[in-house]
Amino acid sequence: MTALADLPLPTFRPRSPWWGGDLQTLRNILTRTTVDLSPWPAERLLFDLGDGDRLAGALHRPAGGGAARPVVVVLHGLTGCEDSIHVRVSARHFLAEGYAVLRLNLRGSVPSRPTCRGHYHAGKSEDLAAVVEQIEGFPGIVALGYSLGGNLLLKHLGEAGETTPIRAAVAVSVPLDLAATTRHLSRPRNRVYHDYMLRQMKVEALAEGAEVSDNERRAVATASSIVDFDDHFVAPRNGFAGAADYYAKCSAQAFLDGIARPTVILHACNDPWIPSGAFQRADWTRYRAVRMLLTASGGHCGFHGTGSAAPWHDRCAVQLFDDAVG
């Protein structure tokens, strides 16, 4: 296996006309991108979390149905699910490259709602730990996580160290510092993004089947910001003293030291949602199994670059996974 620092990952250059962070972020929405996964029919899987809840996943096998390569577990971001466009685009790319793909729905996201009473948050890494222990029939597991899903993935890797079944991982547009991210998303220039996400969070939290008390329902309904939502709903129902405590204990930056599997983190300086300060301040040379690539452009979970229609992060992931699994 190539040393992580020497792995020849492709260089990112934005492709016309997707200049700037906002256009990179919104490209798939503006172009009404759709992804046909019908050549690889999905099998519905349910993963027991040990407390009565079960996570739903969509498992696809590559052409021929073989299992000669590891399965890629793809984790969605905040208010996402297995059908998030980023997840579907990545699934198509990995399947075309001969990898099986598990599109995993976090606890309480739409496809997992009928089998879950609870709800995910950025630090609920025990759910991922439970899932990867139940995956069978493949010669290994690799993973890619988007945004909140990437934070959860990094936290699991740092907690599990050498014991995780995951052999290599990629984290895309991760809120490395959750407190800084919420402050950044609350800036006036991000008001449209912020208000959209808050609306989606409220809908998800109160979806049919969710176990919420009357007090929690009021807290969700009256939340005026994401911080307010986290402070009065997410934090108390998950044992945190408040939003600040939740952010401090669950931010991925606190778990990087423990990561023992080859891991690539990708982030753009013009990400309109997540500031780059935490990435720029970190001493990445101290993390033996982590490689950080900070680009000038790419937006949030965008990275629509020259040289290929496939997003840059998916191409980087294949390079890493191919090298890690030999």
Describe the structure.
This protein has helices at residues 21-30, 85-96, 125-134, 147-160, 178-185, 191-205, 214-222, 226-237, 243-250, 277-281, 312-325; strands at 42-48, 54-60, 71-75, 100-104, 141-146, 166-172, 263-268, 290-295. The protein has 326 residues and is of the alpha/beta class. The chain has two domains: 4-177 and 259-325, Alpha/Beta hydrolase fold, catalytic domain (Rossmann fold); 185-250, no CATH class. Strands 1-2-4-3-5-6-7-8 form an eight-stranded mixed sheet, with helices on both faces. The longest helix is centred in the middle third of the chain and has 15 residues, at 191-205. The radius of gyration is 18 Å and the shape is globular. The protein starts with 20 loop residues before the first helix and ends with a helix.
A few lines on this structure:
With 326 residues, the chain is an alpha/beta fold. The chain contains 11 helices and 8 strands. α3 crosses α4 and α8 packs across α9.
Layout of SSEs?
Layout lengths: L20 H10 L11 E7 L5 E7 L10 E5 L9 H12 L3 E5 L20 H10 L6 E6 H14 L5 E7 L5 H8 L5 H15 L8 H9 L3 H12 L5 H8 L12 E6 L8 H5 L8 E6 L16 H14 L1
Parallel strand pairs: 3-4, 3-5, 5-6, 6-7, 7-8
Antiparallel strand pairs: 1-2, 2-4
Helix pairs in contact: 3-4, 7-8, 8-9
What is the correct CATH architecture of the largest domain?
3-Layer(aba) Sandwich
Secondary structure tally: strands? 8
Radius of gyration: 18 Å
The total of helices stands at 11
Oligomer: single chain
Characterize the largest beta sheet: strand count, sense, and whether it forms a barrel. Answer: 8 strands, mixed
Number of domains: 2
- In CATH, what is the homologous superfamily of the largest domain? Alpha/Beta hydrolase fold, catalytic domain
Strand content of the residues, in percent? Answer: 15-25%
CATH classification class of the largest domain: Alpha Beta
How would you classify the helix and strand content by structural class?
Answer: alpha/beta
Query: What is the typical, i.e. mean, pLDDT?
Result: 96
Distance between the termini: 7 Å
Write the CATH fold name of the largest domain. Rossmann fold
Globally, the shape reads globular
Helicity, as a percent range: 25-40%
State the strand order across the main sheet: 1-2-4-3-5-6-7-8
